[in-house]
Design goal:
The structure holds 2 protein chains of 2 kinds. By secondary structure, chain A is an all-beta fold. Chain A has no helices and 11 strands. The mean pLDDT of chain B is 94. Classes of the chains: A mainly beta, B mainly beta.
């Protein structure tokens, strides 16, 4: 099976702009989660989507949003970019996510490196 | 809020030395436990996982981890490291029934040839 793919791999934006990142999960996986990775804060959970619905949300401002499509592909959007939004944004997929079974392991994509100038 | 602690953020070893990385979490309910590894320039990869059963789990590349419920710990070990084990290692915990992973701050491991 192909792994999790994310596009684009690199982005440079300026403060105040908005950005959309895309994630395609492993075939058959219905849960997509997003994480932000920075040197200072480490890996932090942004949100999770399952069957086109946001099922879980981390502690990020409303400028961070996402959605999921019927084919399980997901996008996240950051509006009014700030310098502190510079980070590696990781997408992870799992089959259902809440069964507690081995199939619910999250597999990560390569990430999108966002730089805000 | 659930927290995950990893100590000794920077670890430097010589090849063939043994490695042990500690991971402690604060949640008292049923959890799933993971170790992920991020090699230089590569994406986050699963090293091993614990869902239930034998608390000693074996992963890829000779790594193993032991779940000690009474100590809320899931420590990672490798008896003899190689230069190629140079990477950042992350412990992650997930509450049963919830798909949100809580990560530790990571251990940057450098293996000197």
């Amino acid at each position: 099976k192909a792994g999790v793919t994310q596009t684009p791999r690199y982005l440079i934006k300026t403060r105040g702009q908005q950005v959309t990142l895309s994630c395609s999960p492993i075939s058959g996986h219905r849960s997509v989660s997003w994480y932000q990775q920075t040197p200072g804060q480490g890996l932090q959970f942004l949100f999770e989507y399952f069957s086109e619905t946001q099922r879980n949300k981390g502690n990020f401002p409303g400028r961070f949003s996402g959605r999921q499509f019927s084919n399980s592909r997901s996008e996240m959007n950051v509006s009014t970019l700030e310098l502190g939004d510079s980070a590696l944004y990781l997408c992870a997929s799992s089959s259902i996510g809440t069964s507690g079974r081995d199939t619910d392991t999250q597999y990560f994509g390569p990430g999108t490196r966002l730089t805000v100038l | 809020a659930q927290s995950v602690s990893q100590h000794n953020h920077h670890v430097i070893l010589s090849e063939a030395a043994s490695l042990e990385l500690g991971c402690n979490y604060s949640y008292g309910g049923t959890v799933n436990l993971f170790w992920y590894v991020q090699y230089p320039g590569q994406h986050l990869q699963l090293l091993l996982k614990y869902f239930s059963g034998d608390p000693l789990v074996k992963g890829i590349k000779g790594f193993e981890a032991e779940f000690i419920k009474s100590k809320f710990s899931f420590n990672l070990r490798k008896p003899s490291v190689q230069w190629s084990d140079t990477a950042e290692y992350f412990c992650a915990v997930r509450r049963y029934g919830n798909n949100r992973l809580a990560f530790g701050k990571g251990n940057q491991v450098v293996v000197i040839p």
